[in-house]
Every structure is written in structure tokens, then in C-alpha cells.
């Protein structure tokens, strides 16, 4: 395998501190980051973090050159772990791939065997890529929200940043489980799309130009938030007693200009969602993504692109010019 050559989309740093430059390079396996498991990549997802890395924003990548792509789905070529047989279909996300070590934007990836998760029965490689880190984050959010007592009969669940990849899958999963979903989006043209995913209501973001009241009309039983900032503070103030919010993004800012009053007077709960969770929990939730958390509308919320379109698609993602999940096909 050392002589195997393949194409990879790799980001290169600049000695003068300018923005990283992305290009397709011809590589050999020995040029990949260290690992004991070689995977032939079928698909890799496009994520906001990947878009930030390409644009040189957020200090995502510190060491260059680096193959981007924080998730991938493919088949095992060879592994030091006898449990990972050649030809086995697997998914990998997190653990620093695409950031601290080479990721999924290549025809082959090399990773540690204990980062590799065999696909549960019933999930195809394409499904796994569409789900990827985004689907896992959506499932993890709902898992912890239900752990805190959320049930469909308690009221509506608000999903912010609703046209994003995680949000679209979250809407799908929630609706399949009987929740009434309200999708919040600043794109009025996306209403029919969001309703097709299962949203019962679509609303525009509130006016956040003024101060946010400590408490507002109690409307939501739960919130799945990808935006952060003032919008999350507004949502927390609008949760019902014992309501629960799951927060995993900061597209609207990292500050949280809110109050402790919702926590004290209404007993609301704010859950921080870090998708880089331990492997036992990953196995459990991927199994649920194949069963009771299984989305039914992945095809509506996704598109497949070719490698040549990857740079432009990442740029569009950063500028909020895309909807749902995009995956790049390498196989």
C-alpha cells in the first residue's frame, strides 16, 4: 500500500501568515497522518468547521499541510485491529481528524483503529456520510434532552438555524418521534423545505436589537440551538418551566448575554453538546440512528457533490449560502 497514489484536497499554510491555500495533491499512503487503519473513503461531509478551516478562520488548523474533512464514511482496507476486516463499512468523525490530523477529503484516510465505528445494520455509506458529525450531534442533543425528561407531550421544540445541517436532521428525528417542531430561520424562502422535513411551524428570528428580558412568555418545551449568542439567551428566556435547551454552535456569537432568572424561577436546563464523546456513547447513538432515532428524509436534506466542487461548496457554507447537508463523493 505504500506505493498507492491517490488524490486529496489539502490545505497549505503560508509562511507570511496569509490565508491557507487549498489544492488537490497526489499523495501516497506514507504521506498521511499516522494511524494503524487504512480506509478507502466513499463520502465525506461538509461541515461549518471545515469551511472555517479553508478560510483560515477560527484558528481551526495550526499545522499544515492538512487534509480537511472532520467526518468520513468508507470501507476498511487494512487494520491492526482484527475486528476491522477488509471491506467492512465504517464511519469516523471527531478525534481531531481534519484538524489535528488528516481527515476525510481524500480517496484514502489513515486513522487509529479505536476511532473507527462499524456501521450499524441498515445504514448505508451514503446515509452515514449525510449523518456524519451533524447527525451524531443532532442525536446527542436529543439523547441528553430526553435524559432530562423531555417528552413529546410537553410542548413544542424550537430548532434554531433551521436550514443548517445539524438542524435539518434534528427536525427530521424530532418529528419522527412525535414532537411538534418549530423551525426558526432567517430564510423565508426555505419554509416549504423545512415543513417537508417535519416542521409544523416556521418562524423568523426575533428582533435582537434591544435588551433581552430575563423572562418572556413561556413557549418552548425544548430548544436545539446552533446559533448561540443573543438568540440562545432569548430562547432560554422563552422556555417553559423545566424546559431544556441543547447548545452546540456559536454562529451568532460566543457571548451569552442572558440572565440566571430562567434557571432559578423556571428550572430550565442548558446542556452543552460536545460531539467528541466517548466511543461507547457513539456506538449507542449510531445504533439509535439506525433504529428509533432514524431520520426518514435524509434525501431531502442532502446533496452529493464531486471533489472538484468542494472548494466552492465550502465557501458557500461559510457564507450561509447552502441548505441542509452536502457530502463529497470520492468512491
TrEMBL record:
SUPFAM superfamilies per the UniProt record, alphabetical = GroES-like (SSF50129), NAD(P)-binding Rossmann-fold domains (SSF51735)
Alphabetically list the UniProt keywords.
Oxidoreductase
Lineage: superkingdom: Bacteria
Q: Name one GO molecular function term.
A: acryloyl-CoA reductase (NADPH) activity
Q: Does the keyword DNA-binding apply?
A: no
For this protein, the Enzyme Commission number is 1.6.5.-
Q: Where is the Enoyl reductase (ER) domain?
A: 22-328
Asked if the record carries the keyword Oxidoreductase, the reply is yes
Do you know which InterPro entries this protein is assigned to? Acrylyl-CoA_reductase_AcuI, ADH-like_C, ADH-like_N, ER, GroES-like_sf, NAD(P)-bd_dom_sf, Zn-ADH-like_protein
Name of the protein this chain belongs to: Quinone oxidoreductase YhfP
The gene designation is yhfP
